[in-house]
């Protein structure tokens, strides 16, 4: 299995965030299976044409989020996925984000609408 990451240099999103997002989505969707060994920081940086610190920052953030785990010199691996409900919620959130972006809403408006919906659902 080859890890396919496509970074957009013209995007307003930082490269480390693009990398973090794509790895997170691949792991949470199951496209990257639990236990999949990620490339080394230096190797991945060379492959992607990024600075090693950029890949390291993405890996640190992913580890803090529980998406990946570092096992010392053995490498970095996709961590055990969250439960099915969490995966479904993440997919629904991605679909919502895609939809509001297509509609041209700002991040602030999209987040506010999502917060209102969650608040209303939990107050029922």
From TrEMBL:
Entry keywords, A to Z: DNA-binding, Transcription, Transcription regulation
Secretion signal, residue range per the UniProt entry: none
Keyword Zinc listed: no
Domain of life: Bacteria
SUPFAM superfamilies recorded: Winged helix' DNA-binding domain
Species of provenance: Streptomyces yanii
All copies of domain HTH gntR-type, residue ranges: 13-81
Listed name of the protein: GntR family transcriptional regulator
CDD domains on file: WHTH_GntR (cd07377)
Entry-linked Pfam families: GntR (PF00392)
Keyword DNA-binding part of the UniProt annotation: yes
């Amino acid at each position: 299995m080859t890890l396919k990451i496509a970074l957009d240099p013209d995007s307003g999103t930082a490269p480390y965030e693009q990398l973090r997002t794509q790895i997170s989505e691949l792991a949470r969707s199951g496209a990257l299976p639990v236990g999949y060994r990620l490339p080394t920081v230096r190797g991945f940086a060379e492959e992607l044409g990024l600075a090693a610190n950029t890949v390291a920052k993405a890996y640190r953030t992913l580890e803090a989020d529980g998406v990946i785990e570092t096992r010392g010199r053995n490498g970095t691996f996709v961590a055990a996925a969250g439960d099915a409900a969490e995966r479904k919620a993440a997919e629904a959130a991605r679909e919502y984000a895609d939809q509001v972006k297509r509609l041209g809403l700002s991040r602030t408006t999209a987040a506010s609408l999502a917060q209102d919906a969650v608040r209303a659902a939990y107050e029922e």
